[in-house]
Amino acid sequence: MQYRDCSKCKFKCSLKITAQQAGDIFATYYQLGSYEKQRNFICQHVEQTKAKRCTTNRKENSNTYFLSTDGKKERVCKAFFLGILHVSKKTVEYSLKKKEHGVFVGCDNRGKKPSINRTPEGDRHFIREHIQSFPTVSSHYTRKDSNRQYLSSNLSVQKMHQLYEKECQRKSKKPCKINVYRDTFCNEFNLAFHKPKKDQCSTCTIYYEKKQRGEITKEDEEQFQEHQTMKEKSREEKRLDKERAKTDRSFAAVTFDLEAVLPTPCSMVGDLFYKRCLSTYNLSFYSLGDSKGTCYLWDETNGGRGSSDIGSCILMHINSIAEKKYRC
After folding, report:
1. Where is this region: Disordered (predicted)?
2. Cis before 265 (ω within 30)
3. Considering only 138-142, 153-157, 239-243, 292-296, which range has the smallest mean pLDDT?
4. Same domain, 290 and 254
5. Domain check: are 213 and 138 in the same one?
């Protein structure tokens, strides 16, 4: 609200309406809430009549402005009226233009006109279909507690957009810019290109999460310190086993790990990105004594990566060591 000193204007506006009364009028106007009610308020407080004198500006109509206080309409000047209601000259002109029989009959069209820069829904739909055409791949370990899906690590949003442009060219469509493609990918899909890392110690993870929340108890601290002690002991035992395996040929010390899923075939040929690759698994063993590695490789047509599959590989490797007359 802009309350101005109009004591010297011919209507003596500020003498008729005090600053407190002006504040009440301002509050009443904006408490009306709806666009139509506010415009109707203007129509009820501005009277439009035919211009009595012809001037060089060719004005056809004259406006008379009023503000209500204590149940009485007080005539005010145009500047005072616009300042109290905090509206523009064009707002008043539009309200009077849409006035019929003393009532505002227009409607609020703001925000209803579609943006000229908005991407057509058909183009967005084609982008969605293109993103969905890429098969998701299995992640390392499991994804049972995650809703996120994973695309081949050979892909990226930029690479996908390049393939999208080729698809548009093939279908004689005008492609959208990469920023539109990226916006659709990031905001409408829960997809990623990396594999989730789940081979973390659950005890350490729970401890650090509690510590971050400030929920560590004395018992938690004692259990964590005991866990850290066992970790150091395990590392020391591993170091001793490694040293023994290097000098004692009848003793074997072996580590093993399951590699991330290998999509097969691995190729940068565009058409292959739309095909579901064969999942291949690799369980690797490493002998600490002679620094030799052994890989057990199979694909999803031969088995999965469950406990029985991994256990079979471990048993097979132990038997191969026993055949060499090692003692495990």
Report:
1. 219-242
2. yes
3. 138-142
4. yes
5. no
Same domain, 207 and 261: no
| Model pTM above 0.85 | no
> What pLDDT shows up at residue 284?
94
Last residue of a domain, one of 192, 208, 234: 192
Average pLDDT over residues 272-301: 86
Task: Specify whether 290 is located in the same domain as 263.
Answer: yes
Is residue 280 within 8 A of residue 268, CB to CB? The reply is: no
Return d(Cα 171, Cα 93) in angstroms, integer: 51
The three-state (H, E, C) secondary structure of the chain, written as one string: CCCCCCCCCCCCHHHHCCHHHHHHHHHHHHHCCCHHHHHHHHHHHEEEEECCCCCCCCCCEEEEEEEEECCEEEEECHHHHHHHHCCCHHHHHHHHHCEECCEECCCCCCCCCCCCCCCCHHHHHHHHHHHHCCCCCCCCCCCCCCCCEECCCCCCHHHHHHHHHHHHHHCCCCCCCHHHHHHHHHHHCCEECCCCCCCCCHHHHHHHHHHHHCCCCHHHHHHHHHHHHHHHHHHHHHHHHHHHHHHCCCECCEEEEECCCEEECCCCCHHHHHCCCEEEEEEEEEECCCCEEEEEEEECCCCCCCHHHHHHHHHHHHHHHHHCCCEC
237, 254: one domain: no
71 domain-assigned: yes
Domain match, 231 and 154 both: no
Identify the domain containing residue 221 by its residue range: 200-243
Could you tell me if residue 272 is inside a domain? yes
Of 56-60, 138-142, 255-259, the range with the lowest mean pLDDT is 138-142
- Tally the domains of the chain: 4
C-alpha count within 13 angstroms, C-beta hemisphere, residue 253 = 16
Domain contains 150 = yes
Q: How far apart are CA 304 and CA 225, in angstroms?
A: 37
Q: Are residues 271 and 225 in the same domain?
A: no
Q: How far is residue 136's CA from residue 298's CA, in Å, rounded to a whole number? A: 20
What sign does the CA torsion over 32, 36, 42, 46 have?
negative
